[in-house]
Amino acid sequence: MKLDRLKAELEKARQKAAEWQARIKDIERQITEQENLEIIQAVRGVTASPEELKTILGMIQSMKELPQSEPKVKEETGKNEEE
Q1: Basic and acidic residues compositional bias: what residue ranges (predicted)?
Q2: Among 19, 21, 47, 52, fewest CB within 10 Å belongs to which?
Q3: Residue 45's pLDDT is what?
């Protein structure tokens, strides 16, 4: 019966999807592990005291938090403030 074949095909597709999802999670885990290893190697390669390293990392973090220099738009007029 065609319905039985479709149901079997659906179940097979669900199993394959589950396998691919598990594979995706495994690959993402491996990527994270490799990124962490690279970070650790880079940190160990720095010849600085832990306090100096903390200061350096804090400076890097604060640079990432700075807002991008984009022209601001006035809400009421829709024109740039620079004009």
Answers
A1: 71-83
A2: 47
A3: 87
- Helix, strand, or coil (residue 73): strand
Tokens of 31: 């990527």
| 15 contacts 23 by C-beta, under 8 angstroms | no
Whether residue 75 lies inside any domain: the answer is no
CA distance 45 to 55: 16
- Under 8 Å between Cβ of 74 and 81: yes
Distances (CA, A) of 60 to 25, 32, 43, 56: 30, 21, 13, 6
Report the pLDDT value the prediction gives residue 43, as an integer from 0 to 100. Answer: 84
Beta bridge partners of 80: 73
Number of structural domains (the chain) is: 1
Where is pLDDT greater, at 35 or 44?
A: 35
Give 83's pLDDT tier (boundaries 50, 70, 90): very low
